[in-house]
């Protein structure tokens, strides 16, 4: 099946993680799952499994009990490994990645030949650890055994995207949709349009995902992504409405509460935004959420509290590294924006050596800028725009680099573009963009 609306193909990578596909395999491979849960699988999955911690814990307990009875059940070992990968994402506890590796290795010990599920699991684990070269190799090995597994195809697509191999990824995504049209493939199609600046196409594809979402969790995920599309294009009322609608259907889905918090902050309802951010972080202390909370605190002058959040982020980074997760890209952006230019450049250069996505190009450009290397930074800022992504952050970074180079007209265009795309994109950097733009127009 070819998915068309006069559409071009594309894929999600950063915004849509392997989590959805991990969940698909968990349900599809579980012999203890009810028949109704397995219908249409693999590939059609609860895309918002992050909201279903209790169900996932029950599944893990069931698999552990099964393996105590049947220790040579290779499929259950691979399924348990995938469940641990998902549990790491659900809980924010990277120690589950080590458990996942143990379970997946045990599956391959029990069944070393033609074990496609274990190879897919190891590919998903490598992707979760941000080792995308390894994820791609393993997904291709699994594909050689079973060419018709859309779960594995999704891992392969994501790895290609993260490596910046976009044309290969788009072809792989076409095959994924042909294998299994559904929530996971439609959400990736949606992100492809957003990635290349086609927001109408992105909304259309995500609406298709919402149409076929058959569980509250699936619907919550689709509504969150629709809210993100609205937020990223500066449509504050629409974003708030979509986040609230999702919360009415799935009150425990943390990303929706995060979405509501940033809308509240943009509206000036700071007290409620801080309350919701605290609730988000208590339930799921993602470094990205903590960083946004810290920036909101800084924007209102609560620097001591913000520094406590910085300490939490550093602790989380150490935990992720100890669990084998490569966080160079995340560290580069965070350190470049928070006064650690040398560390930012080291991390960005390392990330760029490993993968050449537009997000890495942007982070590398920004790290070079804060180290005073603006001519090199501009090369990467331009490369970050090669797909036509409508990103306020990309445009802001480019505008500030151009300003530093004395390219006033270009800087003014870029900064205006950033604020036109989303005037609320950051509680710290959006005001900086406005001040820089005012200085450019005042000096003209």
List descriptors.
444 residues; Serine Threonine Protein Phosphatase 5, Tetratricopeptide repeat; globular; disordered N terminus
Main sheet attributes: strand count, strand direction, barrel closure:
none
By CATH's scheme, which homologous superfamily of the domain at 19-179 applies? Tetratricopeptide repeat domain
What order do the helices and strands follow? Answer: HHHHHHHHHHHHHHHHHHHHHHHH
Global mean pLDDT:
87
Instruction: Return residue spans where pLDDT drops below 50 for at least 5 consecutive residues.
Output: 1-51
CATH architectural label of the domain at 19-179: Alpha Horseshoe
Written account of the structure:
With 444 residues, this protein is mainly α. It has a domain at 19-179: Alpha Horseshoe (Serine Threonine Protein Phosphatase 5, Tetratricopeptide repeat). Helix content is 74%, strand content 0%. It has 24 helices and no strands. The protein has helices at 19-29, 35-38, 53-69, 74-91, 95-110, 116-128, 132-145, 150-162, 166-179, 183-195, 199-212, 216-232, 236-249, 254-267, 270-283, 287-299, 303-322, 328-337, 341-354, 358-370, 374-384, 392-404, 408-421, 429-443. The longest helix has 20 residues, at 303-322. It is globular. Mean pLDDT is 87; it is low at 1-51.
């Amino acid at each position: 099946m070819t998915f068309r609306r006069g559409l071009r193909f594309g894929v999600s990578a950063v915004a849509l993680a392997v989590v959805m596909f991990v969940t698909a395999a968990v349900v599809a491979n579980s012999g203890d799952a009810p028949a109704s849960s397995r219908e249409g699988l693999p590939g059609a999955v609860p895309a918002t499994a992050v909201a279903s911690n209790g169900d996932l814990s029950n599944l893990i307990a069931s698999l552990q009990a099964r393996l105590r009875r049947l220790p040579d059940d290779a499929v259950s070992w691979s399924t348990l490994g995938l469940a641990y990968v998902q549990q790491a994402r659900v809980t924010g506890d990277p120690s589950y990645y080590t458990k996942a590796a143990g379970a997946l290795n045990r599956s391959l010990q029990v069944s070393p030949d033609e074990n496609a599920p274990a190879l897919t699991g190891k590919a998903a684990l490598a992707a979760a650890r941000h080792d995308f070269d390894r994820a791609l190799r393993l997904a291709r090995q699994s594909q050689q055994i079973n060419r018709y597994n859309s779960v594995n195809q999704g891992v392969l697509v994501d790895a290609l995207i993260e490596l910046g191999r976009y044309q290969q990824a788009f072809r792989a995504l076409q095959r994924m949709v042909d294998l299994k049209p559904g929530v996971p493939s439609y959400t990736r199609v949606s992100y492809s349009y957003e990635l290349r600046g086609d927001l109408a196409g992105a909304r259309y594809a995500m609406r298709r995902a919402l149409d076929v979402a058959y569980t509250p969790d699936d619907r919550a995920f689709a509504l969150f992504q629709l809210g993100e599309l609205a937020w990223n294009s500066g449509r504050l009322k629409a974003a708030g409405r979509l986040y609230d609608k999702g919360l009415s259907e799935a009150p425990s889905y943390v990303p929706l509460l995060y979405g509501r918090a940033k809308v509240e902050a943009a509206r000036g309802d700071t007290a409620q935004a801080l309350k919701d951010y605290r609730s988000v972080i208590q339930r799921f202390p993602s470094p990205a959420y903590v960083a946004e909370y810290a920036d909101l605190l800084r924007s209102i002058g609560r620097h001591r509290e913000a520094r406590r959040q910085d300490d939490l982020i550093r602790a989380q980074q150490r935990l992720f590294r100890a669990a084998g997760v490569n966080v160079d890209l995340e560290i580069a952006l965070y350190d470049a924006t928070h006064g650690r230019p040398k560390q930012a450049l080291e991390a960005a250069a390392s990330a760029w050596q490993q993968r050449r996505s537009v997000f890495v190009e942007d982070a590398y450009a920004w790290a070079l800028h804060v180290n005073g290397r603006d001519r090199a930074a501009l090369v990467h800022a331009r490369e970050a725009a090669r797909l036509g992504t409508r990103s306020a952050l990309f445009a802001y970074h480019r505008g500030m680099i151009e300003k530093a180079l004395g390219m006033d007209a270009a800087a003014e265009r870029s900064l205006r573009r950033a604020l036109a795309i989303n005037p609320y994109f950051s509680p710290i950097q959006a005001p900086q963009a406005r001040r820089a733009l005012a200085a450019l127009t005042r000096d003209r």
